[in-house]
Design brief:
Number of strands: 19
Strand order of the largest sheet: 11-12-14-15-16-17-18-19
Number of helices: 21
CATH class of the largest domain: Alpha Beta
CATH topology of the largest domain: TIM Barrel
Number of domains: 3
Shape: elongated
């Protein structure tokens, strides 16, 4: 008969005795601290030991039993390379049996009758702790470069601290070297390895004499599980100063994310939060430290909600495509020439969700292609509807992310959409941000060039916000430059900003491509851009992004102007 008591602690104990009263007495002694399994003979015991071998913390084994005695069980367990790690405490009233069992490999013995309950509890607890400590030490792995724990062992150790020392309040700290690949590229692999080694040594000095542990998690990431610190800024500065001492000719910048202890959270959950906090300051040269707080928790919960709801949003058509017009201001009056497709999400519970809340999220999680494909499909159908209704083609610009560019089915998808809707390929303009070209530029240029050869118009979005060299710019396959709206914001008041606008326009003239100025809001901005030679303007001066039915009014108005009405 096998009985499993209610799970109260993670350690699992097997009690083996042919006398029911003995099983019950031991069960009552241990059940408040352990999960209990029972077996009434040696054969049942062996079956349970094999079944629960990955969870069993200790076996309390009677030696004198029918069918198969405890000596045989002990012998078979000790002969098995995997099972022998499970400690066995023998139960007997015979001194000679105790000695024989210990010689066969038993970890300890408990003498019958079981009248000293505290002693029994203490012995079981001690054997479990010693056994798990030995397993932990024997399984220990250290990173050969820093001598810190490896990732897997670190989390095993952190989980045990959390499980067996639940009263300890431990924070999760993620420390990362910014752009470590550049440090290696500029200074050599040997210098980079030395930087990792020195940082690891400083972390060990910090943890010396404390209950904390640390790991080299990835090539340039360090995880620290430690007691709460009074000043994490000071700790980060300490590590940063050690890096600064390495070389005055090399710049090594650290960033840190911290997730404070929170009741009920396991180490892995804490480090997920610390990693998210650390990633939030990636590339931010003003802020190097981020502590995970309630605002971040709310944002994380919102992000997870949006990720979970995306598929339903597409299926239920909660996503809507709005259109913002672009006008040629070199005409008098300005002429509607095209539009940009912009996504909106009318969530049934959250209301209107800003694109700024979900676009970066989906880009970071690789889900942006779901949104992009929806926008492409809607935009193509809308161009076709307007063409049929008004007899004019209004080209629409749609976003093309890095994820999309490297999709093997991209060309087939886009050509299929325009063919299905009876459109020219040039009517679906593809926007690629300048920053998208900065990684794997050769492959990007190759794929974009192929799309351009197929007849699609390519627009470089947010030009001026990235890091393109002029040589690289000349090789990029583009038909239109879209000037970053930050250039436009102050051109009425700051001549330096306007000078930058003129530089961009000069570059476009040499490339023989038109420029779209985004974010234009005032008549003065329009006039300055027009006089400087900017051809196309998009922004609130002409119109906010509009749902299709409102955009149609602009098309009707344009046709009336053409007819002279």
């Amino acid at each position: 008969m096998i009985i499993s008591k209610q799970l109260r602690k993670p350690q699992l104990v097997l009690i083996v005795d042919d006398q029911e009263i003995n099983r019950d007495v031991l069960g009552m002694i241990l059940e408040d601290d352990y999960e209990i399994l029972y077996a009434s003979n040696g054969r049942e015991a062996l079956e349970l030991i094999r079944e629960y071998s990955d969870r069993l913390s200790v076996v309390l084994l009677d030696l004198i039993m029918p069918e198969m005695d405890g000596f045989e069980v002990l012998s078979r367990v000790r002969a098995d390379e995997f099972l022998r790690r499970i400690p066995m405490i023998v139960l007997t009233a015979e001194r000679s049996a105790e000695l024989k069992a210990l010689q066969m490999g038993a970890a300890d013995f408990i003498t019958k009758p079981f009248d000293m309950h505290e002693v029994i509890l203490a012995r079981v607890s001690r054997i479990i702790e010693l056994s798990e400590g030995r397993q932990l030490i024997s399984a220990a792995e250290h990173d050969p470069l820093t001598n810190l724990y490896t990732r897997n062992f670190f989390f095993e150790y952190a989980n045990r601290i959390h499980r067996y020392h639940s009263v300890w309040r431990m924070d999760a700290v993620v420390l990362n070297i910014e752009q470590f690949h550049s440090v290696n590229a500029l200074n050599g692999r040997e210098f980079g390895d030395n930087a990792l080694r020195v940082l690891g040594e400083e972390i060990k000095v910090f943890l010396a004499g404390t209950k904390g542990i640390a790991s080299r998690f990835d090539a340039d990431r360090f995880d620290i599980y430690c007691a709460p610190q009074p000043d994490y800024r000071a700790l980060l500065d300490r590590f940063q100063e050690r890096m600064n001492d390495l070389s005055r000719n090399a710049s090594i910048r650290l960033r840190m994310g911290v997730a404070p202890w929170r009741e009920g959270l396991e180490p892995m959950q804490l480090f997920d939060r610390a990693s998210a906090a650390c990633n939030m300051v990636r590339g931010d040269y003003k802020t190097r430290l981020m502590v995970y707080d309630e605002d971040m928790l709310e944002r994380e919960m919102l992000n997870q909600r949006l990720l979970n709801d995306l598929r339903r949003a597409v299926e239920e058509r909660e996503l809507r495509v709005f259109y913002q017009p672009k006008y040629n201001v070199q005409c008098d009056p300005p002429k509607l020439t095209s539009a940009e497709a912009l996504i909106r999400w009318q969530h049934p519970e959250l209301g209107m969700v800003s694109p700024g809340a979900f676009i970066p999220l989906f880009e970071g999680n690789g889900q942006i292609s779901v949104v992009d494909n929806f926008v492409w499909s809607e935009a193509a159908r809308q161009i076709a509807r307007w063409k049929e209704q008004f007899g004019v083609t209004v080209p629409v610009s749609v976003n093309l992310s890095r994820v999309d560019v490297f999709d093997p089915a991209l060309e087939e998808t886009l050509t299929g959409l325009v063919a299905e809707n009876g459109l020219e390929r040039s009517s679906l303009k593809l926007e690629v941000t300048e920053s998208a070209y900065t990684e794997n530029a050769g492959k990007m240029i190759e794929r974009i060039s192929r799309l351009r050869e197929l007849g699609f118009m390519i627009e470089m979005d947010d030009f001026g916000s990235g890091y393109s060299s002029l040589n690289m710019l000349s090789a990029m396959p583009i038909d239109v430059l879209k000037m970053d709206m930050r250039f436009i914001k102050n051109i009425e008041r700051d001549e330096r900003d306007f000078w930058l606008v003129e530089v961009v326009l000069d570059i476009a003239r040499h490339l023989k491509v038109p420029v779209v100025a985004e974010g234009v809001e005032t008549g003065e901005q329009v006039e300055k851009l027009r006089r400087a030679g900017c051809e196309l303007i998009q922004g609130y001066y002409f119109s906010r992004p509009l749902p299709p039915e409102e955009f149609e009014k602009l098309i009707i108005k344009e046709k009336e102007i053409e007819r002279g009405e």
